[in-house]
Amino acid sequence: xxxxxxxxxxxxxxxxxxxxxxxxxxxxxxxxxxxxxxxxxxxxxxxxxxxxxxxxxxxxxxxxxxxxxxxxxxxxxxxxxxxxxxxxxxxxxxxxxxxxxxxxxxxxxxxxxxxxxxxxxxxxxxxxxxxxxxxxxxxxxxxxxxxxxxxxxxxxxxxxxxxxxxxxxxxxxxxxxxxxxxxxxxxxxxxxxxxxxxxxxxxx
Length: 204
Hints:
Order of helices and strands: EHEEEHEEHEHEHHEHH
Distance between the termini: 22 Å
Structural class: alpha/beta
Mean pLDDT: 91
Strand content: 15-25%
Largest sheet: 5 strands, parallel
Number of helices: 8
Shape: globular
Radius of gyration: 19 Å
Number of strands: 9
CATH topology of the domain at 6-34 and 95-203: Rossmann fold
Strand order of the largest sheet: 2-7-1-8-9
């Protein structure tokens, strides 16, 4: 059985990675979103095992100690992370897994899964990125400037990814990401069993 793809998508705030990932999940029936674990309290409408795995601080820290997380971070006094066992089980079953995480988490994932498909989403320009963030009208000028500074830093890390997709138009960007996934599935290294079958048939 072909092992599933671990697909990691990152990009600065305002690049549109969330929109792209949502569209991918709708169009790729064999692609599943990786459910994260967190220590924050559930919000209204959130479902255990679908929205997040809601854990106690003690349980989460025990997972850190046992190296049972693919990646993790502490944000505003709450832990967030990706349970390693769940990902390994789904990949072994041939299921493709989608991780939408920041660059820091992605670099941690790459240490454990260098064969993963790492895709960085870029805006058409920094000016367009700023326009999109300002268009939300949800942040103060100070917060907005911090986001822009963080975006520039994330974009530099984007050089370490395997693929880059410019999100100038969502439909086109989604098509580009799907093309990457299709190509990855056709790599010889991911299809050794096809050659094994040919060899077996020749011997018979």
